[in-house]
Amino acid sequence: MNTTTASLSERYAELKAAEPKLRIRDYANRLGATEAELVAAQCGCTATRLKVENWAEFMKELKPLGRVMVLTRNEYCVHERKGSYENISDHGGRIGLVTGKDIDLRLFYSDWTHAFAVTAPSRDTELKSIQFFDHHGDAIHKVYPQEEAKADVYQDLVNRFGHEDQSADLTVKPKSAKEAPASVDAERQEKFLEGWANLKDTHDFFPLLARNKVSRYQAMEIGEGRFTRRIENDAARRLLEQARDQEMSIMVFVGNDSAIQIHTGPVSKLVVFGEWFNVLDPDFNLHLNEQGIASSWHVVKPTTDGDVNAIELYDANGDIIVQFFGARKPGIPEREDWRQLSKSL
Question: How far apart are CA 195 and CA 192, in angstroms?
Answer without folding.
Answer: 5
